[in-house]
UniProtKB/TrEMBL annotation:
PANTHER family: UDP-N-ACETYLGLUCOSAMINE 2-EPIMERASE. The lineage of its organism: Bacteria, Pseudomonadati, Bacteroidota, Flavobacteriia, Flavobacteriales. It comes from Tenacibaculum jejuense. It is an enzyme of class 5 (isomerase). GO terms for molecular function: hydrolase activity, hydrolyzing O-glycosyl compounds; UDP-N-acetylglucosamine 2-epimerase activity. Keywords: Isomerase. It holds the Pfam family Epimerase_2. SUPFAM superfamilies: UDP-Glycosyltransferase/glycogen phosphorylase (SSF53756). GO terms for biological process: UDP-N-acetylglucosamine metabolic process. Residues 26-364 form the UDP-N-acetylglucosamine 2-epimerase domain. This is UDP-N-acetylglucosamine 2-epimerase. The keyword 4Fe-4S does not apply. Its EC number is 5.1.3.14.
Length: 366
């Protein structure tokens, strides 16, 4: 059986890894990785090299990303991705292809496969993020897919409602948490030394644009910087840089300004990679930002999270989340609350056992 894995960014590749590892173990499966999007962008860390370093499988490289991140450039990148994948699907056939999440370039690759009858398996369908256009792309991907692997029962029901069918919809849990109980973090000194981060208590941070709030992103980016500069007076900040989203450069600019203003307490990282990122999460005091990892993964590391704005609004949350408006004073107030809390002792609603193994088992059965 020939299996394709569509990966367009460092984020989805990190989530995929337990599944890829499990698929490779099965001698009856031929695995090919199809890399595109920011993986091929030097501006975003050229993470295709990380894939090549980790896997010896056949890797396809498809370049279609426009560097700029305004609305016209995003639409152009979408169109170019469709065109490139029209040629790719015409020349390459698979028994099954995995696609993940909700990014626009992932949606474009999937849309191009519809006329070819590609059998897509969608991971993380049915979720809701009201502050991002991801909702639209995610549902597009679900509608084009024949198999669905959701992270909660609620999202399974949403996919059934969306596709008007309960056939081949499975609630398996969040793939990134597969095998999390066996995760062994990199030693703190080694991790911080590798990325030139001072060995002091720190908060782990990731901010992305709210792509459903074009006219307010400049304001939000400034509010973010003001809050971070103030918070950095109380605790060190380790910040992962934004991925390729509409107006992401606004946030990059303000993060660079914050680093310049508070160079001794703010540390910027372009790309951690999954093992380093999970280790950074493990060693952090708490998390801050508007990324899905705070919602989905942090609870398994016993971390409280300050979730800012509406980008993740609508996602099911565990009890470790403190929600804040996208306002500097509100963010600072929520962080002060978070600093006073100790280790989170509750459960993670996204966790299930043997997630990757169950996906492979289901795939082979159907």
């Amino acid at each position: 059986m020939r299996i394709g894995i569509l990966t367009s960014s460092r984020a989805d590749f990190g989530i995929y890894q337990p599944l890829i590892d499990e698929l490779i173990l099965d001698e009856g499966l031929e695995i090919e990785i199809i890399a595109f999007g920011t993986h091929l962008s030097k501006y975003h860390g050229y993470t295709i090299q990380n894939i090549k370093n980790k896997y010896q499988n056949k890797i396809h490289e498809i370049t279609s990303l426009v560097v700029n991140d305004d609305e016209n450039s995003i639409a152009t990148s979408y169109g170019m991705t469709v065109l490139k994948f029209a040629d790719f699907w015409n020349l390459n056939t698979y028994d099954s292809v995995f696609c993940l999440g909700d990014r626009y370039e992932m949606a474009a690759a999937v849309q191009a496969g519809i006329p070819f009858g590609i059998k897509f398996n969608h991971i993380h369908g049915g979720e809701t993020t009201l502050g991002a256009t991801d909702n639209i792309y995610r549902h597009q991907i679900s509608l084009a897919s024949v198999n669905h692997f959701t992270s909660t029962k609620e999202y399974k029901n949403k996919v059934i409602e969306l596709t008007e069918s309960d056939e081949n919809v499975y609630n398996v849990g969040a793939l990134s948490l597969s095998g999390i109980e066996e995760f062994s973090p990199i030693r703190r000194e080694d991790l911080l030394g590798k990325f030139n981060i001072e060995d002091k208590p720190y908060c782990l941070i990731t901010f992305h644009p709210e792509t459903n709030a074009f006219d307010r992103n400049k304001e939000y980016a400034v509010e973010m910087r003001k809050a971070l500069e103030e918070i950095s007076k109380k605790i060190n900040l380790v910040i992962t840089m934004p991925n390729a989203d509409t107006m992401g450069s606004l946030y990059r600019k303000e993060l660079l300004n914050a680093k310049e203003n508070r160079s001794k307490t703010i540390f910027l990282v372009e790309n951690f990679g999954k093992e380093n990122y999970f280790s950074a999460m493990y060693h952090s005091e708490f998390m801050l930002g508007n990324t899905s990892s705070g919602i989905i993964e942090a609870a398994s590391f016993k971390k409280f999270v300050v979730n800012v704005g509406d980008r993740q609004k609508g996602r099911a949350q565990s009890e470790n989340i403190i929600n804040s408006k996208f306002n500097a004073s509100e963010i600072i107030k929520s962080v002060d609350t978070c600093i006073k809390k100790r280790e989170y002792s509750g459960s993670n609603i996204y966790y299930k056992e043997n997630i990757a193994q169950n996906i492979v088992r289901i795939l082979k059965r159907i």
